[in-house]
Design brief:
The protein is an alpha/beta fold and about 200 residues long. It has one domain (about 5-200). Helices cover about 35% and strands about 20% of the residues. It has 7 helices and 11 strands. The protein has helices spanning about 5-10, 30-40, 95-110, 130-140, 145-150, 170-180, 190-200; strands spanning about 15, 45-55, 65, 70-75, 75-80, 85, 110-115, 155, 160-165, 165-170, 180-185. It is globular and about 45 Å long.
């Protein structure tokens, strides 16, 4: 049965929830309470795995386990600089650096994950990257242009994801998520989801 909603194809389980990591840096009990709130929300379909430091034990939740620059999600392994890119935190990579990483993953057939600094749908005045911009770079190519696109450049609804005369439907988006782009790690679930709500996407 084909997918019919492009929003779910592109954004389903996209935010791996990492409230134990900076800047949230919650203790495990508080992080679990925040994650339970995300699971109970009407936007829970956007929620991916719960990200924990290596050695942390959590029951009844799919986990992403991070340690030594490596993240493990069952059989999937994401290595920083190879199949995982930090888009913020202590330093913010340039548009050119992010674009080059995306292109290399596309050319090498590497499915990657992005993390850190992707709380906003569009780039901010502080130099932070927008997660919709990153998704457009992954889906459409023209990576530098996509990463620099200003607020209001993209449209996403049940029918398709659109940018600058280009369009991708649910099947193309699902294929991209399955083969090139895995997820976004975020210490906040409600901040990026709130941006999608403000844009009328969810």
């Amino acid at each position: 049965m084909p997918l019919v909603d492009a929003r779910r194809a592109l954004l389903g389980r996209i935010f791996d929830h990492a409230p134990m990591f900076p800047p949230a840096a919650m203790a495990l009990p508080d992080a679990l309470a925040e994650d339970a709130r995300a699971q109970a929300s009407p936007d829970a379909w956007l929620l991916g795995r719960f990200v924990v430091p290596e050695g942390t034990e959590v029951e009844a939740r799919e986990l992403a386990v991070v340690g030594g620059g490596i993240e493990r999600q069952d059989d999937a392994v994401f290595v920083e600089g190879v199949s995982k890119i930090r888009c913020g935190g202590a330093s913010i990579p340039t548009v050119e650096e992010v674009a080059a990483f995306v292109r290399r993953c596309r050319e090498d057939g590497v499915r990657f994950k992005a993390t850190a600094g992707l709380h906003h749908a569009y780039p901010t005045g502080a130099g932070e990257h927008g997660f919709l911009n990153l998704l457009a770079a992954v889906v459409f190519g023209d990576e530098e242009e996509a990463l620099r696109a200003p607020r209001g450049s993209f449209a996403l609804d049940a029918g398709s994801f659109r940018w600058d005369g280009r369009e991708a439907g649910a099947e193309d988006l699902a294929r991209t998520r399955a083969t090139l782009f895995h997820s976004i790690g975020s210490c906040s679930f409600f901040e990026p989801v709130g941006e999608l709500r403000a844009l009328g996407i969810v």
